[in-house]
């Protein structure tokens, strides 16, 4: 259960980073 929460958090973190990178570009 904890592993699933960590995976979801990592995916959200990556999506946010991509979104911010696209906005800066």
UniProtKB/TrEMBL annotation:
Q: Where are the transmembrane segments?
A: 6-24
Q: Enumerate the UniProt keywords alphabetically.
A: Membrane, Transmembrane, Transmembrane helix
Protein's name according to its UniProt entry: Uncharacterized protein
Source organism (scientific name)? marine sediment metagenome
């Amino acid at each position: 259960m904890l592993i699933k929460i960590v995976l979801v958090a990592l995916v959200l973190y990556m999506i946010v980073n991509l979104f911010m990178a696209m906005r800066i570009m």
